[in-house]
Specification:
alpha/beta; twelve-stranded mixed β-sheet; three-stranded mixed β-sheet; 18% strand; globular; disordered N terminus; Pentapeptide repeat protein; LRR_dom_sf
């Protein structure tokens, strides 16, 4: 009977009972059986099928990789955990695609030095005498390396002009812009002019400066950049503050107009102070493929923050205009005493958390009350990762959070913010 093809194999599922098999049971053999069980409406049957898929080599891995797109958050989450320790090339690539931001350089304070990596690429200074040598794994930096920019022999605009005239310019995938030293074209105009040559640009960072250099002194309109570069997947704007003001009837600072962009996957706005007007201008963006959104600060120049209701409304809008969002980072929000937990309360009272893979509330002012709101939110269990590091949580609360069946990052907690404020006085 060892060659009887009707007998179930070790990993085959049997429907209808197995006494005596196979007369009263139907064998769902091999990987096809796994796929049929994955189509079940029973979550326990689906999870069992995921475990069994590991027994079918590359076919099983391919099935698991496809399941990362499953409509069920719980199934996606379980599949991700099964694949995390696998060394196969196709698995590593699939996990990179699933959470493409894993290799992003992450700061837990406002950056004071130039970036060494950007968008999973090594940052190297563009040297006109050397030119372009590598494009796929490199982000070229156009920046003045020192605050004493007046002594530099070449302007930023000249560097960009030399770069875009290089025969390999159309292959460049990523650029990092530091302090924009120019006597002519503004940064935005220079990049609009360069778009015809930088046709493959996928990642752009503006504002890569260290603590001795100058901050934003002109108008940066994100929408114009998105319009000029339809292949952009990652854009990062980083400056100390985004306070819009008018000089000689011209608006300076950051600006966002209405636009739809089909390919942008990551938007990072990094600052310490921000105008509420700019936050609401984000509503103008229609980004159907955006998966990663990171916003530093919801505090304006007067020290005020968005209200709990304001944050809830903001999250509801993001839920609609960013339908594919997986990572949400509301970071560096050191609110005043009256607004300590507005961020976690506003988020859990909205729908946005339902589809997230990762929620990052690091560098905030959340205390145990805000963390309790997170714990009481059913959708928190659907996350892969929750980052609440650099807040004001007690050791007991950190332990409670780590009881969740997800990755919890809760390093570098300070004493309760209320106690800290009282002590400081």
């Amino acid at each position: 009977m060892t060659n009887n093809q009707n007998q179930p194999n070790k990993y085959d599922a049997v429907l209808g009972g197995n006494a005596p098999p196979p007369i009263h049971g139907a064998v769902l053999g091999g990987i096809e059986g796994v796929k049929k069980r994955l189509a079940s409406s029973d979550i326990h049957v689906q999870i069992s099928a995921l475990n069994d898929a590991l027994n079918y080599g590359d076919l099983g891995l391919d099935t698991l990789i496809n399941t990362l797109k499953h409509e069920s958050v719980r199934i996606r989450q379980y599949t991700y955990k099964l694949l995390q320790d696998k060394e196969e090339t196709q698995v590593k690539q699939a996990l990179k695609d699933y959470k493409f931001w894993t290799g992003f350089e992450k700061y837990y304070e406002f950056p004071t030095n130039h970036a060494t990596t950007f968008a999973n690429r090594e940052v190297i200074e563009f040297e006109p005498k050397i030119g372009i040598t590598e494009t796929a794994n490199t982000a070229y930096a156009i920046r003045v390396a020192d605050w004493d920019f007046a002594s530099k022999p070449i302007l930023s605009t000249e560097k960009l002009e030399i770069l875009q005239q290089n025969p390999l310019a159309h292959q460049i995938e990523a650029l990092v812009i530091g302090f924009w030293y120019t006597k002519g074209l503004s940064l935005i105009d220079a990049f609009l002019n360069a778009s015809e040559n930088l046709t493959n640009l996928k990642a752009l960072c503006i504002g890569d400066i260290h603590d001795r250099e100058y901050y934003l002194t002109e108008n940066i309109n994100i929408s114009y950049l998105l319009l000029a570069y339809p292949n952009l997947e990652v854009i990062k704007i980083s400056f100390s503050n985004f306070i819009s003001y008018t000089y000689n009837k011209n608006r300076l600072g950051l600006e966002i107009n209405s636009i739809r962009h089909e390919n942008l996957k990551a938007l990072i706005i990094e600052c310490e102070i921000i105008d509420f007007e700019l936050i609401y201008e984000i509503y103008n963006l229609e980004l159907p493929t955006l998966e990663y959104f990171e916003l530093w600060s919801i505090t304006n120049e007067n020290g005020s923050t968005l209200s709990r209701l304001g944050i809830k409304e903001l999250m509801q809008v993001f839920y609609k205009i960013f339908p594919k969002l997986k990572y949400l980072g509301i970071r560096n929000c050191k609110n005043n005493l009256e607004d300590l937990n507005h961020v976690p309360f506003g988020i859990v009272e909205s729908s946005i958390i339902e589809n997230l893979v990762e929620l990052d509330l690091s560098m905030g002012s959340i205390n145990d009350e805000g963390a309790e709101a997170l714990l009481n939110c059913p959708s928190i269990k659907n996350l892969d990762t929750l980052d609440v590091s650099d807040n004001y949580l007690s050791d007991e609360m950190v332990e409670r959070l780590k009881q969740l069946d997800i990755e919890v990052i809760a390093d570098r907690q300070e004493p309760d913010y209320l106690d800290y404020e009282l002590i400081s006085f």
